[in-house]
Design a protein that fits this description.
Blueprint lengths: L10 H52 L14 E5 L5 E4 L12 H8 L4 E4 L8 E9 L10 E8 L1 H49 L17 H51 L5 H26 L9 E4 H10 L7 E6 L7 H6 L13 E4 L1 H18 L3 E9 L2 E8 L33 H11 L3 E5 L14 E8 L9
Helix pairs in contact: 1-3, 4-5, 5-9, 8-9
Length: 492
């Protein structure tokens, strides 16, 4: 019984997708975290610079001396404003008339907020990072009326952030692609022993005792699995070998007593002793002898150490004529016809003896053991004669590189769903279970085994309604295809 595995996305692809997805999420989170941390660190650095300058200027304001212009370092902008937003002092590049911050913004800055304002307020590009520090001057009538405002250019910081964001966006897919390629290679290397195990299991046919799964040089779990499976195969092989030996020994031991029983029954029948009992028993003994011979043949064919078959060219037409000659007294008519890919000439048909094969065209020759090929045809014809209504037809023909042998009958046929099961040992259909009808249930199993050893195939099909005179039986058509032996061209 064979099972079909639905092949979807392979394990390698699933592992790749999972690993790449996990790496993609991790990279995305890491990139966002890096961008956020650097953004906070950059803003804090600007704020620290502005706060340090504000503290320095606040010392001057508290001392009552506000120089003009206020001393600053770099591109900083500094203003000192009073409670009415009037500019009391400013750095060289700062506006001396208008406060940098609006009243609401100034109130937020005085409460400790660090603001970002557009650079257009001072005629520059980019943004300004602004810090405000309340301070009490000696001239102030109420506390905390003056405010030191320090603005720092954030353009360089923003350009750095833009470069960082662009770099992360560009390198993100590149890193994913590189990691995907590396993961594909690593997963492939990891799963290679699994594929070797699968290929090894697929190649095991059960015909040889030494067929085992490959075991890698590593000591990982896959190697341990291969060793465990090979031990299982050893146990199965030993059990199967014991079964073969039992069948062969039993069949061999039964041959002698059955032959002795047959001889005694034939003598009793010849002497007229025991009435019709010897004749009835002879039929059963003959059937048991055939069953024993079939079992012994199957046991020999399945042995890994079976002797090689004796192969030589066999003319299929001659063999068909020989087989058909054995069924001259069969209960139904058995006939044969062969052709070489074209119709037999009328003159040849008129001169050919009835029931024999046409000799026209090139010989249909196969390289086979004659006894094995004869056994194939005999089993098929026996089965056809047993179930045919009125006739059994044997035919042969040529296909490209092959010889086609056909045995068809006009019997009830075999349903398509049962055509594979009939090749199993002792398989019987519902309408063929009467053991008195003959047959051991091993005939077709022997046919498939012998045909496979010859490098051929055997298939079953309907013979067609025309095969039955009544037209109510589909009949059975057995097709055996064997490699054809090339016929040497005649010398000119």
């Amino acid at each position: 019984m064979t099972s079909t595995v639905r092949r979807g996305v392979s394990l390698r692809w699933r592992l790749l997708l999972i690993s790449v997805a996990c790496v993609a999420v991790a990279l995305a989170i890491g990139s966002l975290a890096l961008y956020a941390v650097l953004n906070v660190a950059g803003q804090r650095a600007l704020d620290d610079r502005a706060s340090n300058t504000a503290n320095d200027v606040a010392v001057l304001v508290r001392g009552g001396s506000i120089p003009d212009p206020l001393p600053v370092s770099g591109a900083q902008l500094v203003q000192v404003v009073d409670g009415q937003d009037r500019v009391l002092g400013a750095s060289a590049s700062a506006d001396r008339l208008t406060s940098l911050l609006r009243p609401d913004e100034l109130a937020q800055a005085r409460n400790g907020s660090h603001l970002t304002v557009p650079g257009q307020r001072v005629g520059s590009t980019g943004h300004l990072r602004v810090v405000a520090l309340p301070v009490t001057a000696p001239s102030d009538r109420t506390p905390d009326q003056s405010t030191v405002i320090v603005a720092v250019q954030a353009a360089d910081y923003e350009r750095a952030q833009a470069v960082l964001g662009g770099t992360l966006l560009l390198t993100y897919p590149v890193l994913l692609a590189a990691l995907g390629i590396i993961s594909w290679w690593v997963i492939g290397r990891t799963l290679r022993p699994v594929e070797e195990l699968r290929a090894g299991a697929e190649s095991i046919s059960g015909e040889g005792r030494d067929e085992r799964l490959p075991v890698g040089a590593s000591t990982d779990e896959i190697a341990a699995l291969a060793v465990t499976l090979n031990r299982m195969l050893d146990r199965l092989s030993a059990a199967r070998e014991r079964q073969r030996d039992f069948v062969a020994d039993a069949a061999h031991e039964l041959r002698s007593p059955l032959a002795s029983m047959r001889t005694q029954l034939e003598v009793a029948q010849h002497l007229g002793e025991a009435g019709d009992l010897p004749e009835d028993l002879l039929a059963d003994v003959s059937r048991l002898s055939g069953l024993v011979e079939d079992l012994l043949l199957l046991a020999r064919l399945e042995r890994p150490t079976a002797a090689p078959a004796r192969l030589w060219p066999v003319d299929v037409r001659e063999l068909l004529d020989e087989v058909v000659g054995r069924y001259a007294g069969a209960r139904v008519r058995v006939a044969v016809s062969c052709r070489e890919g074209f119709d037999e000439p009328a003159g040849d048909r008129a001169g050919r003896a009835p029931g024999t094969a046409w000799r026209g065209g090139e010989p249909l020759t196969v390289t086979a053991d004659p006894e094995h090929l004869r056994r194939v045809l005999t089993n098929l014809v026996d089965n056809a004669v047993r179930h045919a209504d009125s006739q059994v037809s044997l035919a042969c023909g040529a296909e490209p590189g092959r010889v086609l042998l056909i045995v068809s009958d006009d019997g009830p046929g075999i349903p398509p769903a049962q055509r594979e099961r009939v090749f199993e040992r002792f398989a019987r259909l519902d309408d063929a279970r009467d053991r008195d009808a003959g047959g051991s249930g091993l005939g077709l199993a022997i046919v498939r085994e012998l045909v496979a050893r010859l490098g051929g195939t055997v298939t079953l099909a309907d013979a067609g309604s025309a095969a039955s005179p009544r037209g109510d039986h589909p009949g059975l058509r057995v097709e055996v295809r064997l490699p054809r032996t090339p016929h040497p061209a005649p010398h000119g």
